[in-house]
Amino acid sequence: MFNRSDLGWTLCKIIAHPKVKSKSFTAYKKDTVDSIYMKGNLPGVEKMVVTREGLCVSLSMPGFELEDVEAGFEYDTLIVEGKREGEHYIAGVRVPEGFCKENDMIKREMQDGVFKATLPRVDENRLVFSVYR
Fold first, then answer.
1. What SS3 class is residue 72?
2. pLDDT digits (tens, 9 = 90+) for 101-123
């Protein structure tokens, strides 16, 4: 399994570097009896949308349940990590200014294999526009 503190910390530092254009990453590992499958993406495979609620980050995580997924912050990066028997998924998205970056403020939900994390705006009266990629 991935070590969140090592992998997340390293990838957060990479996407935080001013010369790196990508502001997200994903990594997936699956162990089977016969093989180990690993895949990584820079930029990540997330969908990020600004709504009235705040910043919504959606990740396709088929087969995972909400109980299998943790979400939290390292630096200014939202880290989403899913673990279950033989599988480990980790994704990180740099969160732009204007959105709450506190772990207990993350609204988490899972529907049809899609994990969604919503981060409220720091100031609900201020519109924030930020485009990555």
1. strand
2. 888 889 999 999 999 999 998 87
pTM of the model: 0.76
Distance CA 21, CA 8 (A): 18
- Residue-wise pLDDT for 30-74, tens only, equals 877 777 777 777 667 678 888 888 899 998 888 899 999 999 887
- DSSP 8-state secondary structure symbol assigned to residue 99: B
How far is residue 74 CA from its own chain's centroid? 11
Identify whether the C-beta of residue 55 lies closer than 8 Å to the C-beta of residue 23: no
Q: How far apart are CA 118 and CA 53, in angstroms?
A: 7
Q: Which amino acid is at 99?
A: F
> Residue 66 and residue 111: Cα distance in Å, rounded?
9
CA–CA gap between residue 55 and residue 103 (Å, rounded): 14
The burial of 4, by beta-carbon neighbours within 10 Å (0-12 exposed, 13-18 middle, 19 or more buried), is given as middle
CB contact at 8 A, 108 and 71: yes
Token readout for 96 is 């732009």
C-alpha–C-alpha distance, residues 30 and 51, integer Å: 33
